[in-house]
Fold THIF-type NAD/FAD binding fold domain-containing protein.
Amino acid sequence: MVENKEDNKTLSADEIALYDRQIRLWGIDAQTRIRSSKILIVNLSYVGVEIVKNLMLSGIGQLTIWDSSVVCEEDLDGNFFVNETHLGKLKAEASFNKIKDLNSRVKLNVITTELDMSDNDFFQKFDLIIGTELIKTNIVKLNGITRNLNIPFYSTGLHGLFGYIFVDLINYQSSLKIPKNFNNTYNKLGEIDSAREIVKMNQLKENDEILDEIIFSNNYKPFEDVINLQNLKLNEVYTTKRKLKKITPSLPIILTLFDYPLNKEKIDDVDIEFKDLQAKNLKTIEILKLNLKNDDEYLKILSKQAFCQFAPVSAILGGAVAQDVIQFLSGKNCFNNFVILDGIKSEMPIYIL
């Protein structure tokens, strides 16, 4: 482990000046919570690199990166913390200095041993854990650990022009402040949908403005439940034709891809037969009871791009993950619970699965 030692502390005058813009955006209390947070990122993938960059610049208290892989040619296209001189070296250690240069105030650690899912004492040190480019079994295992320890969890990965974000904040209470004269659709206590309910409404005054504060209770599912397609009851969530139209062809395909193995050592060798993906995706659609047909255009693209990492797409996806983490640390509304980045249509629908 490489470690940079720096005492964790509340915001100093220098930090208030450094993070002035952020404090203006989400407040000094939120920045203080960000400054005291301890986050673990598993895998310094393309999207992992972007998340690291954004969290370092946000001023979190401690960031630990767990990656046992070495720098390869592919990393040079999407990891701006390494260059040709680092080829064959441990990726996390090679990236350490440039990551640290982003914000010397953040306590930065890197771990280069193999991922050990049995050490609960290690995981419970963190306030939040993010996994990137993990295979399905490891997402299930890691999310099981975070659930047992009551730690919020994110998992994200790329498929060329597509990507996904899974979020499990377990049971999370968030707030939304709306100007008094604004058209507020959250005007009564009770259930909004299967994942959210309004539990409290307050009125307060900030900067001479009267605000309505809405307190939400947000319930999340573990990843194991999300990939158990037989038990997903989307027809109970998307109850109208208008809501059903929000389910795009990319959703069943991304869910189907979780059943394919990923060899991170030989990403260029990923080869998924179009007809095989077509057949498996049709089965997913039938299990989910969706009024969709196989989209051959999407299937052809994803059969060629599955598990591939594109730097421009990782910048968007990594930015979205980091922003949602900041939302969580600030007590604001967050993704619940599955997001798909569709680079063809330039959209990011959020699904309650």
About this structure: Residues 46 and 330 are 26 Å apart (CA to CA). The domain at 2-169+311-351 is CATH 3.40.50.720 (Rossmann fold).
